[in-house]
Every structure is written in structure tokens, then in C-alpha cells.
TrEMBL record, chain A:
<dbReference type="InterPro" id="IPR027417">
    <property type="entry name" value="P-loop_NTPase"/>
</dbReference>
<keyword id="KW-0808">Transferase</keyword>
<dbReference type="GO" id="GO:0016301">
    <property type="term" value="F:kinase activity"/>
</dbReference>
<protein>
    <submittedName>
        <fullName>HPr kinase/phosphorylase</fullName>
    </submittedName>
</protein>
<keyword id="KW-0418">Kinase</keyword>
Automatic annotation (TrEMBL), chain B:
<dbReference type="InterPro" id="IPR000863">
    <property type="entry name" value="Sulfotransferase_dom"/>
</dbReference>
<feature type="domain" description="Sulfotransferase">
    <location>
        <begin position="3"/>
        <end position="283"/>
    </location>
</feature>
<dbReference type="InterPro" id="IPR027417">
    <property type="entry name" value="P-loop_NTPase"/>
</dbReference>
<protein>
    <submittedName>
        <fullName>Sulfotransferase domain-containing protein</fullName>
    </submittedName>
</protein>
<dbReference type="Pfam" id="PF00685">
    <property type="entry name" value="Sulfotransfer_1"/>
</dbReference>
<comment type="similarity">
    <text>Belongs to the sulfotransferase 1 family.</text>
</comment>
<keyword id="KW-0808">Transferase</keyword>
Amino acid sequence: MRWYRVSGLTVTSDIALPSFTEIECADPADIVVRAGEVPAQIANARLIGPNWYLAHDSIVLGIPGVVRMMMRGGDTLIYAVEPGAAPEEVAIFLTGTGIGILLHQRRAIVLHASAVRVGDHAVLFCGPSGEGKSTLAAVLCEAGHDLVADDFCRIELREGAAPLVHPDGRQMRLWEDATEGLGIAARRGAQVRSAIRKFYVAPRAVTARPLRIGAIYALREARAPFAPGLHASNSVDAALLIRRNAYRPLLVREMDQRALYFEAATRLVRDVGIHILARPLDFAALPDAVVTLKSHWRALELGVERAA
Amino acid sequence: MKRRIWLASYPKSGNTWLRLLLANLRADRPADINRLPTEPALASARAPFDRVTLLASGLLTPDECDLLRPAAYRAMARIDDPEEDEGAAGIDDTIFVKTHDAWTHNAAGEAMLAGADAAAGAILIVRDPRDIVASLAHHNASPCDAAIGFMADPAARFAEPRDGQPTQLRQTLTDWSGFQASWLDQREIPVHLIRYEDLQADAGGALARALAFFGVDASAAQCARAAEFARFGRVQDQEQRLGFGEAPRPQLATRFFRRGAAGGWRDELTPTQADRVEAAHAAMMVRLGYPLTERRRECA
């Protein structure tokens, strides 16, 4: 067995999870990942998706020809590799969708976002798939900011305390063109899957402890109606941005967590602030985006000088 | 629960025009071209696929995505998801979803866009292929001859991954003739055909007929006003002032609403180029009512 720390939780697994940070034995773990029987479907499903069955405390989900997995009770992930699939192909789905769904089952506030450390704070970048969350985090990491998260941000909200984000303990996962655009192709690790030109890349430095959230940015491509630069979002839009950038927004709806996320959005809008960052989807434009962000962090007094 | 109708077309055939007409149907001023329904109303968009499959499509191969796409579209039609549907706008209880996919099948033999359980039907917009050439060449910032070759390629696709993640799911177009035949000859869902040239002649009338085909309530006056709000000169002017977020990226081309003409090929293609298009697509051109040039008719 191997042990990992992810989003403030300990995970034990019978299969290597290469994107996670390995730790010493930490039994009993919060989450157990193991091979086993996964039913084809769930009899008492409350909702059936294209490739999943959702029941009261479990979800069975399949990726055709690769793996089927069952996430149960927020603490157990059982996977069955499909015949003919290589076991190395499945880890990326266990560490992403699998662990992400377990976090939703634990009623965690989890955003689909990357994050880096700025002084004593974390800043988060969320946005639709392909919007450059990982690439922006990687360029900031190369510029001296510790990586906090590559894929999901578990947020902790306690009354009377500032909102915190837990590091997701991951390696960066970057497309081939991004590693070349950032000049770090030489540091590429394994491909996440043999057929996908996306690579694990070890971050220059990581943060292991939870950090206060300094700012949340929703990434957009700079094209009409968004001019390049920072845009304020009103509180209604900001609350919607939080809900839409939940790790799996459909599950928030279907697992009756809308009130939970609505409350979280209200807190984050009030205590942190949510901004829209629009920039061209072009590596040549990244330095400008970094300049925009650094000046924003100075305005927010996030202590950028100490981190850089 | 909303019903869904595909807006199917080969690229550069008037799909955006029809989307503009629909966006203007219930408007009291011209709709902002940068606020057209986008992601949930685009079949190849990643976000709705990721949302309904609980997966990151970027971690799947295009073939794996294809295996999931039919079930994904059925689930989108079946699962009540008002927050998502809101972004798709639509008219009353109908959402119009744009697609450049030909009516193809995945490796499991399922129709890629599923069947009647995913959409109530389709509006197919067709355009004289000779007019598509210059428009497609402009869009791709490539020569007309490359566009003619693409339009004749039975394996033509959009968003084929290379070293990064394409913004959309892969789409199989096939060649221009194959695209039209695939939609016209499938028997899963009803199709209403609109010719770009009919939109040119009477956009309000063509819109009214399409809506009537699917039983969407709209008066002749509403359709006429939508046609006026979506008039080519108006949207071109909006693009000039504010830009258009769906235009090709700046390094490729300068604007999306280029010419909007029917018959423009006569001064944009050489006789040889026009002949290549006709030679490749004569049968379908005749089927859709696009007259061949004198020389080609003699050959045929």
C-alpha cells in the first residue's frame, strides 16, 4: 500500500497515484483506494447519467474501455480496470474524477481550480476546461510562487475565520505545447496516458499547509465581450461563478448541496472577492497576464515581494 | 424540461445567421452578437459534455469521447438542468443546439448525436458550395484550393488533437456532399431544410417556415423584425465596433461577417476552381437546386 496527502485528507491506495505527493504510513487513512468488484449499475439509483449511476451514498462511473469505479460514503474508491486496458492508464481518473467525487460526497466545497501561493495567501484560478488554469499556475510557479493546487481546491469555511484552501498535493499536468511554451519540456515526467500528450511535471516548489485565500480569478479568453485585463464581477455573477466552478457542478445540484454552495459563494464574495481575468490564449501573452496579476496583488496587499 | 433541436450545417453555410435570427425573435432591440447562446447551445462544446459525464474530456481520446457522446446527448435531453439550460437561451421550451457534425456513427454503431431521444429534429442549413470556398478559406486563413480540397475530403474533421487540447470535441464533417446526404438521408429525426439563398431572399419567411415546422409560436411580424435586427449590414457593423467573440482568432483572419453574399463565387473563384467544386459535388448540387455551369452540364 502507498499513502498520500490530498486536499487535507490522507489517502491509501493499492495502485500508484503518480500525481499525488507520497507520505509515510498514515493509517487509518481518510480515503481508501483499492481494486475490487464494481457493479455494472446500482439498483436504487436516484439519477442515471450517460456513464454513471447516482445513489444515496454511492456513485458508479465508467470510462469505456478503461476503468469502472465506485465512490462510496466519501471514503472508499473501488476500481476495476477494463479488460485490455493498461493499469497505468487509470490513475489519472482515480485521482481526478474519483477523488473529486469523494470530496463532493464528504460535502466539501471543492472548486475546479488551480492555485499558487502569494505571500501568506493562496490565489485561485478557475475556469472551463482548456482555459489555461494549469498553464497559468505553472508560469507563476516558475516565477517563484509555490504551487498550491493543479486541479481542485478544497475550501474550508469556518465561522469567524478567513476562508482557507487545502493544497491538492499534485504534480502539475501540462499539455506538450504548454511545456514547450514555458520552456520546461526537459522536466517532463510521464505522460498522463499513453494516448494523451499531457505530462506530469514536478512543480519547482509546493505548499503543504492550508492557506488563506487572497483572491479568486475566473479565467476567460480575451475576445469580445472581454477585453484583456481584470474585470470586476458583481455579487450575483460572482456567486454563479462559484457554483458553476464547483468540481462537478451537476453533482452539487443532484446531491442537494445547492444551499451549501450558495452559502459558500456568499462568504467568498464577501471575504475574498472574485475577479475575471481575461487574456489571450497565447503563451506570448502570459508575461502580460503575470504583470496584471502582480499589480493586483500589490493593490490587495498580498505580500507579493516576499513570495517572488 | 426543454426539447432540443439541432442547427446542423456544413461550416460557413449560414448557421450563425440562423442563430442570430433566433436570438432576435423575441427581442425588442437587435441582440448583441457577443451574447448569443454559446456553450450549452453548441454540440461540440467541452463544458456541457464534461458536466454531464462527470469527466474531463481532455483526458479522453477523441474515440473515447465518441463512444460517450450519444449517451451524453441523451442525458442532456433527459436530465432537468435549468441552470445549464438558461445559458442556452432558446425560445419558449425549445433549445437550439448548433452542430457541424455530419450524421455519423461511432465505433459502437450508435448515431453520434443519438436519435429522437436526444433531439426533436434538426434544421439543416445548406449553401452553394462554390460560395463556401472563399468564406472557408478566409476563416482558415488558407488558400481557396485548400478549402476546395477540405470540402472534397470524406475524412475531414474539426478539432483533431495534436500537442494540446483543442477547444472543442472532435467533429467529423466528411465532405460537403456527404455531410448534406448524411442529414437528409437519416431516418431518426425530422429535418427541415433551409437554403442560405432562401435566407438571402426572405429571411423572415424562411425563419417563419422553420419555426412552423417545429410548432414554435411566432408571428410573421416577429420573424420580419428578427430578420431586420439580424440583417447582414447591422451585424457587420456590430462586429466592426465591438468585435465578435466567435470570429477566427486575430492571427488567422480579421472578421467573421465577411461578405454575406450569394453568387459571390463568380468573382472569387477561377473557372478551374469552380469546376473542381462542381466535379466533386455535382449530384448533391443538383439535388439541392444549385445549377451547374454550362460547361459542367455539358460534361455531365
